[in-house]
Specification:
single chain; 193 residues; mainly beta; Porin; 8-stranded antiparallel beta barrel; 2 helices; 8 strands; 14% helix
């Protein structure tokens, strides 16, 4: 899975360099009248995610994480493709043993996005690799990796700044011998370079 995500990421970033930059004037005019918003380019920002999940052996968790992200998108007209990396930290509480707080020392995601350019709004689906590292009172409480997938919506509030919301599902196969599933509802702000 990691190789697939990395290979797709490289392909997405390299694609514009190999594209023919000499489009006809007619096709350029059609594109400019159909959609004047361009989502192409590098961006970075901050995010906050509310986290809710459960473990295969029973019990659930609730908490939040916050962090930073960066990525690149290329706007092909109606379709936008991109790659994004983000890193978050936080904590959550077990619903089985109230009062037990697990620290999320890191929650990392690396994935691809495919979206629809609706002018100032971008609606997209995302899929990728995720890894989590947990601790309890400074002692290692397990780590694992898996996949995440979900939907998002970004909206340009200015030429350089966008606000977004994202709904993601994280599936981890083995953290301390059991599977964990996290859902996150996130809010973010990004600056486009």
């Amino acid at each position: 899975m990691i190789r697939f995500v990395l290979a797709a990421s490289v392909a997405l970033v390299a694609a514009p360099a190999f594209a023919d930059g000499h489009a006809s004037a007619a096709s350029t005019d059609v594109m400019s009248t159909a959609n004047t918003t361009d989502w192409s380019g590098w961006y970075a920002g901050a995010q906050y995610d509310f986290l809710d999940g459960d473990a295969s052996l029973g019990g659930g968790v609730e908490g939040d994480v916050s962090g930073l992200f960066a990525g690149y998108r290329h706007d092909y007209g109606d379709i936008v493709v991109g790659v994004e990396l983000d890193y978050s930290v936080g904590d959550f509480e077990s619903t089985v043993v109230p009062g037990v707080i697990l620290d999320v020392d890191s929650l990392m995601r690396l994935g691809i996005e495919v979206g629809y350019d609706a002018g100032p709004a971008l609606v997209y689906a995302t899929l990728g690799y995720t890894a989590v590292d947990l601790s309890l009172a400074g002692v290692d409480a397990g780590d694992g990796d898996g996949v995440y997938y979900g939907l998002g919506l970004d909206y340009m509030v200015s030429e350089r700044v966008s606000l977004g919301v994202e709904l993601l599902r994280h599936d981890f196969n083995n953290i301390n011998g059991q599977g964990w599933d996290f859902n996150t509802v996130g809010l973010n702000i990004a600056y486009r370079f």
